[in-house]
Write a structure and sequence with these properties.
Layout lengths: L10 E6 L1 H4 L8 H15 L4 E6 L2 H8 L11 H22 L5 E6 L1 H5 L1 H16 L3 E6 L13 H12 L3 E6 L20 E2 L6 H6 L12 H12 L4 E6 L5 H7 L5 E3 L5 H11 L5 E5 L1 H8 L9 E5 L7 E5 L5 E6 L4 H7 L7 H5 L13 E3 L1
Parallel strand pairs: 1-2, 1-5, 2-4, 3-4, 5-7, 6-8, 9-11
Antiparallel strand pairs: 7-8, 9-10, 11-12, 12-13
Length: 374
């Protein structure tokens, strides 16, 4: 039995946990890994853009070193990840190449999300990869990260990635069927919760969440709930399901009742609007002419040709207030260029941006999707 057919998701983040990739053993399971790759290829062929957040580097490192007992002074996770990550990527490369698909590696730390410049760089890189049907395989950069810049687990990383690219759907595959009313490993009468649609996740779900079951993994059900809550608050739907179910990914995309589905609390548009309006007090000001005002009121983007003045100092990705010639606030938005760059291209045609800056980040100073009228 299936729900009413949902709108086909366009951007999908899939997080594969270590317990899924090892199929409950201490070794990476090649049959399981290949089958998951096959499923990803299938849903991509249906028009979805797939971003993969994959655990398993530490497990691959342990396996490569024959499960060593490491001295306490060695930063074990970083070292094992450094050994295992290239092995894990080589497996993905081999399996996806069987379907004539190219993969790419993207290693992130929390700093790449917090810093606005690096945030935009990461977003643009992932967008460019998916546009060319290249599968981005994302993992935390364990080899160089420390406690201050770590996500801590790939569940959290997947939620941040979903927010980064404004994903329609985040799928967290694990070794459990979904969220339960109690821990099913302790209580055989625990009931699967198929849907969470309220603004808050019920306390009993948090209470039922246990720790990590596998010593190879770093996340448990509690981290998945935290990640799901973060993603749904930024406009992404989340499904938590078992990675062992037959054709689990195509069935989730189809809308089958499988696992636990958590509905978003706000839309991507509302989430982005909140972020942009929160920066309304920015000292950055763009003064525009009457033609630009008319274009903005008609739903257009702000082009350099319509800008007549720049006040304040700001960087790419900062918020700027857009003012009319008589000083009225008309809009607020995220700028694609710094204040110093805009001063060089104001009044110019978009086709001239590269001529004056030596590069281009797009035709728009503020794209309409990152702009809100006041």
């Amino acid at each position: 039995m299936t729900d009413a057919q949902p709108k086909q998701p366009r951007k999908i983040v899939i997080k594969l946990g270590t317990s899924t990739l090892t199929d409950g053993t201490e070794h990476l399971s090649f049959p399981r890994l290949f089958d998951l790759v096959r499923q990803i290829v299938q849903i991509q062929s249906q028009g979805c853009q797939v971003i993969l957040v994959s655990s398993g580097a530490i497990a691959a490192g342990r396996e490569a070193l024959d499960f060593p007992e490491l001295p306490k002074f060695i930063p074990a996770k970083q070292m094992l990840s450094a050994v295992g990550q290239p092995r894990l990527m080589s497996y993905y490369d081999q399996f996806f190449r069987m379907f004539k698909l190219v993969v790419s590696q993207v290693l992130l730390t929390r700093s790449d999300i917090i810093d606005r410049q690096r945030y935009l760089n990461a977003r643009n890189t992932i967008d460019a990869l998916t546009t060319l049907n290249i599968i981005p395989i994302i993992n935390e950069n364990d080899a160089v990260s420390n406690d201050e810049i770590r996500f801590g687990d790939n569940d959290a990383l997947s939620a941040y990635v979903a927010n980064l690219i404004e994903a329609d759907l985040l799928v967290l595959l694990t070794d459990q069927e979904g969220l339960f009313s109690d821990d099913p490993r302790r209580n055989k009468d625990a009931i699967l919760i198929p849907l969470v649609d309220g603004p808050e996740i019920p306390p009993e779900i948090w209470y039922a969440a246990g720790g990590a079951k596998s010593k190879l993994g770093t996340g448990g059900m509690a981290t998945k709930i935290t990640a799901a809550d973060l993603a749904r608050r930024s406009g992404t739907e989340v499904v938590i399901a078992s990675g062992r179910k037959q054709d689990v990914l195509p069935r989730i995309i189809k809308g089958d009742r499988i696992g636990t589905r958590l509905l978003p609390i706000v839309s991507h548009l509302e989430s982005r609007k909140r972020y942009i309006l929160a920066g309304k007090r920015s000292k950055g000001i763009l003064q525009v002419d009457a033609g630009a005002v008319n274009a903005l009121l008609a739903g257009g983007s702000l082009l350099p040709v319509g800008i007549v003045g720049v006040d304040g100092k700001f960087e790419r990705g900062d918020t700027a207030v857009i003012k009319t010639g008589d000083g009225r606030d008309i809009a607020v938005g995220l700028v694609n260029y710094s204040s110093s760059d805009i001063k060089q291209i104001l009044g110019r045609k978009s086709s001239e941006i590269e001529q004056y800056l030596g590069y281009t980040l797009g035709d728009e100073v503020v794209h309409r999707s990152n702009l809100f009228l006041l």
